Amino acid sequence: MSSAVLDEAIKKAAIAWISVGDGPAYALWCMPVEASLAVISGPGEQFAPGLAEAQRATVRLRGDHGGLIVESAMTVSRLVPGSEEWNEIAPALAGKRLNATGTADDLVARWAAEGCALVRLTPVAETAVGSGDLPAESHAEPPRETPARVETRRPFRLHRVTKR
Predict the structure, then answer these.
(1) What is the dihedral of CA 34, 37, 43, 46, to 10 degrees?
(2) Alpha carbon 101 to chain centroid distance?
(3) d(CA 104, CA 64)
(4) Which string of b and e fits 70-88 if b means at least 16 CB within 10 Å?
(5) CA distance 53 to 95
(6) Residues 56/127, Cβ–Cβ less than 8 Å
């Protein structure tokens, strides 16, 4: 597969399916940064278990039609608050954050204070698999158990409309 497809998918990425090790893939919002992706996770942000401590992750990106077009292994590097990369990427990412309270500067300060993980995902050379080489079967899985899921009770009695 050509790296041009991967580069183009990264440039257009707003969401990526990211999995660490053999764990499940999570849909995470991201921001393209040159030829890599920036992702924030942690308290008050999106849930990405193991991503902050990982060395590598598998990233799946979708095309314009919404379907999977490329899958690649990527190296994970965590950015340190106050570093040159952090000061460049964090404000740009905060500007893209939807439904955030406060200004972008307040958000960046909160990320640093609460220990949120800002990671940069960079593709590993020659690991990208294009749409022609991807498996044809569905990767759909049943919903994971979560405390947010509530079982709904069936009504005691269904009301019927009586014919006259």
Answers:
(1) 140
(2) 21
(3) 29
(4) bbbbbebeebeeeeeebee
(5) 25
(6) no
Overall residue count recorded for the chain in this entry: 164
User: Cα separation of 75 and 54, whole Å?
Assistant: 8
pTM: 0.78
Provide the residue-wise pLDDT of the chain in tens; the chain has 164 residues.
Answer: 457 878 888 898 889 999 998 888 899 999 999 889 999 999 989 999 999 999 999 998 887 777 777 888 999 999 999 999 999 999 999 998 888 888 999 999 999 999 999 999 999 877 667 656 666 677 677 877 777 767 777 666 666 667 67
Alpha helices in the chain (DSSP H): 3-12, 84-96, 104-114
Distance CA 150, CA 164 (A): 39
**136, burial (CB in 10 Å: exposed 0-12, middle 13-18, buried 19+):** exposed
- Using the CB atoms, write b or e for 152-164: b if 16+ within 10 Å: eeeeeeeeeeeee
